[in-house]
Amino acid sequence: MSRLTWLLLLLLASACAAPPNKEMDQAQGAIDAARAAGADRYAATTYNSAVEALKSANTAVAQGDYRLALNHAIESRERAQDAAREGAEARARLRSEVERTMSDVAGLMAQASTRLEAARKNRRARQSTLDQAAATVAAVNRTVQEAGEAIKEDDYAKAGPALSGVKARMEQAIAAIESAVRPPTPRRRR
Q: What is the 3-state secondary structure (H, E, C) of the chain?
């Protein structure tokens, strides 16, 4: 064999004779970046698969299978990059939904408060219905405050579910306030 062939074989053998530390470091860096982008909360499945692939790379290194370790490290890096992208997109989408819901609920709460105040001045209003509507408004206000705290912590995954159904509850409270001030319908005599 020629010297060139021996040199090529030596290079190939040495390429697989050392752990793929560079690729594993890149994978760890991509995982850290994905976590910083919120992928662990907003793209958990893809993020966890990236973490598992890196664990598999470490296991392969411990077993001396550096080619397999290299494959797992590259897979880990790619999945972590996907998780970062998915997490950023999901977070932005959820943030938009939460902000829209918060805005809608704030408008409904202002409307309910105004109508409740006017209804309390109406002597014919059914006070028990108004009290129930006021309790609903107060409960929704507490929920909105909790969601606001989650938003301050940049946790839209917590804020979103907390606001689930809040608009409907406010709309029902407004309808109850309106029904409390309507005069009763006269009954027909037979």
A: CCHHHHHHHHHHHHHCCCCCHHHHHHHHHHHHHHHHCCHHHHCHHHHHHHHHHHHHHHHHHHCCCHHHHHHHHHHHHHHHHHHHHHHHHHHHHHHHHHHHHHHHHHHHHHHHHHHHHHHHHCCCCCHHHHHHHHHHHHHHHHHHHHHHHHHHCCCHHHHHHHCCCHHHHHHHHHHHHHHHHCCCCCCCCC
